[in-house]
Amino acid sequence: DFMNNDTVTLIEPEDGDWYVGDLLTLMNIGKVWDLYNEIGWPGPDGEGTPMLMLMNWVDGDGEPVKNACYRGKQNGFQLFCFNRVQRDGECIDLLGHEFTHCVSDALAVELPYINDTGAINEGLSDIMGNLIESYISEDDDPEWLIGEGSKDPEMVIRCMSDPHRFKQPEYTWDLYYLPNVRTATDENDCGGVHINSSLLNLIAWRLHEKGMPVEDEFYYWMQVLMAIVPGADYPLMARLLPWSMKQAGFEAWLPVLEEAVKETRIAEYDPDSV
User: Fold this and answer.
1) Which of 142, 172, 181, 202 is the most exposed place for a label (fewest CB within 10 A)?
2) Prediction pTM value
3) Among residues 221, 205, 222, 199, which one has the least CA distance to residue 120?
4) Cα distances (angstroms) measured from residue 124 to each of 6, 23, 33, 93, 101
């Protein structure tokens, strides 16, 4: 209703009880807000803009959309959509993921959602989502899964330590890699934005696997977020990642980072030639 005709349907308790999923989502997104606020980033856009949680996301036929997303700014609110079918509110990494999409948009002035740039956008949200979960949640996540916080096993959608488990590439042009496209569609995943995000995810996992402290990881990837620019592709990231590591003062982790960049082969191709 809000996105289509600027009206807000307030949530009312059903039979005297609130829908637990709504309250759980609100509680956990508040924790994500608080964590970013503690490092000096108020609100999802850094300006303290209020969030509007649209909790009953449905398609044109009124069927629930089994997903969560950040939908941009409208009428003075940063919009986030959730549904009442999946257990998104139980997954702090998913909520941190969507929150970080707004952070990325604010810092890079809306990353084009296609090909490498879109995959980098998704990867940064996955990485920050898992680091946020590490700060907030008491649950151990030794594989860096996305969505494992839910009691519903079908909520797990990616494995950052083992991309092949969910048919994502470990390096450019491996079995699951999707090439760039001219036109972004749902059928081609906008040029592999959710598929090729694993390349950046695996680099982050290698740093975590080798023992980089979570606090340092969080600070480093915030440096990357602040350095990202619209149109960034993976070859550019191969140069930007070590530069950001030096700027963050973590030169000791450069050998691990450089080996991970080499492993994923993100510097070894020219996307414009494909």
Assistant:
1) 142
2) 0.94
3) 199
4) 31, 27, 17, 12, 8
Q: Residue 117, Cα to own-chain centre: how many angstroms?
A: 13
Reported in sequence order, the residue ranges of 121-182 that DSSP labels E, i.e. its strands, are 145-146, 158-159
Q: Strand, helix or coil at 81?
A: strand
User: Whole-angstrom Cα distance, residue 157 to residue 119?
Assistant: 15
Amino acid at residue number 49: T
HSE-CB at 99 with a 13 A cutoff on CA atoms is: 35
Q: What is the pLDDT of residues 105-117, one digit of tens each?
A: 999 876 789 999 9
Cα(64)–Cα(54) distance, integer angstroms:
12
Instruction: Answer yes or no: are the C-beta atoms of 250 and 220 closer than 8 Å.
Output: yes
Dist CA 93 CA 115 (whole Å): 23
The whole-angstrom separation of Cα 171 and Cα 202 is: 9
Quote the CA–CA distance of 125 and 136 in Å, as a whole number.
16
> Encoding tokens for residue 183?
């036109």
**Residue 273 CB contacts under 8 Å (≥ 6 apart), including other chains:** none
CB distance 29 to 53 below 8 Å: yes
Count CB neighbours of 126 within 10 A. Answer: 27
Q: Give the model confidence (pLDDT) of 38-63 as tens digits.
A: 999 999 999 999 999 998 888 888 89
Q: Both tokens of residue 91?
A: 């997954």
